[in-house]
Amino acid sequence: MTIEEIYKVFLAHPEVTTDSRRCPAGSMFFALKGESFDGNRFAAKALELGAAVAVVDDATVVPEGDLRKTPQGEGRYVVVPDVLRTLQQLAAYHRQQFHGPVLEVTGTNGKTTTKELLAAVLGRKYQVLYTQGNLNNHIGVPLTLLRLRTEAMAATGGDPAHELAIIETGANHPGEIAFLADIVDPDYGLITNVGRAHLEGFGSFEGVKRTKGELYDYLHAKPGGRIFVNESNYDLQDMLVERDIDIDTQECITYAREQALTMTWVCEGDVLECDPMLRLWWRPKYEAQHVVQTQLIGAYNADNVLAAVAAGLHFGVKPEEICAALEEYKPSLGRSEYRQTEHNELIVDAYNANLTSMTAALDNFEHIQQAHKMVILGDMKELGEASAEAHRTVLQKALACGAEVIWLVGEEFKKAVTGQDSKNIEIRNFDDVEAVKSAIIQEPPKGRLILIKGSNSTRLHQLPELL
């Protein structure tokens, strides 16, 4: 079948799954393959559990007489050349049936928090579809797009149509943002920032900028494409200049920390307080100032908040509704979370880590007034040849942040400790999170403000329940 014909099957079965263990009744199962699994082998199980149709690329798993050759056919199996590519093509085709604005968000740090803030603000006026969690790769993006409810789908009953979509995209190799943008076909784009992450895949910081900038390339080439730009971020401004994009034209919608200088700015603002929760002011162009008390940790989140304000204003959300959305938003998934436990105060930012985000977190931690501080840092991954120097830099930051105790988890930090001046600070090295757990059980920290940050693979997100 063609993609157009498979799309007719999708409209009859619009709930998509790639997990053979979770197949809602009437769903459409896509038999993806990975390094250690082959979804084709589980297609029959998916149908047994409730899926109505299984899309496979191995015809040998199809029982005789059970192949669907037309959209209206009765067979339960659809055979395609490549299941993953079909999933991506189907998502791209479905996106073209949606006529509301689509905003693509990417960046080195803060893209998930920014995406959620955007959804909170824009959700005050619109029915918004947005990426759940961090489903931002070549599989997660198509799955997100296939959750879009078009007006035609809503006309058949059920939930109302979506009016706006916010799609998060991530990358760790050149070309990935361009590939995902071709599927998403965004009308608007926002790059939160560019930093030194995934250097193993990108090769250099310039490689990071080129790859993230693929979103600017796409929107610049698309008639009517618009770019939200943090005017205070000079790396992003340079990326516009490199592409001959004039920040002072209607192609750009700008926001800024402190004072906006371009003609296209919609809001400006800055931090009022961050000890530990972020409190900031913002104002629309030529209008009165607003003050927002957020539930976010870290002055670095001010840029993410202002991005959501800018989008809210551009799409006509009232200032008071923007403020209410920002104040009610509570972070999750181990991103800039503040937790008060029976024995300690925790700043949990353990979902991911790179040199840029580590530095920002430690700078913020240094300025929080608390007598007894402690940091637990896990290795930063995928930094390639820059890893050793990056871990030494972070350790120096940790030594200067006012912590009495520093716990380091992983081989890279263990190497970084050699020859460091501890300045009478207690430093301990741990091979892995299990060793940290044992130490906490044996001698639980008490009465401390504790920053927990590391790459997701170090699994430091398991520690808060013990502290």
State the shape. globular
Q: Helical element count?
A: 17
* Number of strand segments: 19
> Biggest sheet, in brief?
9 strands, mixed
Mean pLDDT: 93
Specify the structural class: alpha/beta
Task: Offer a concise description of the structure.
The chain is α/β, with parallel strands linked by helices and 467 residues long. The protein is built from 17 helices and 19 strands. The strands form 3 sheets. It has a 9-stranded mixed beta sheet with strand order 6-7-5-8-9-10-11-12-13, sandwiched between helices. Strands 14-15-19-16-17-18 form a 6-stranded mixed beta sheet.
Describe this structure in words.
With 467 residues, the protein is an alpha/beta fold. The chain has 17 helices and 19 strands. The protein has helices at residues 3-12, 43-49, 83-95, 111-122, 140-145, 151-154, 176-184, 199-202, 205-212, 214-221, 234-242, 302-314, 319-328, 355-366, 387-399, 411-416, 433-442, and strands at residues 16-17, 28-30, 53-56, 77-79, 102-106, 128-130, 164-168, 188-191, 226-230, 252-257, 265-274, 277-284, 290-297, 337-340, 345-349, 373-378, 403-409, 426-430, 449-453. Strand 12 and strand 13 (290-297) form a beta hairpin. The model has no long low-confidence stretch (mean pLDDT 93).
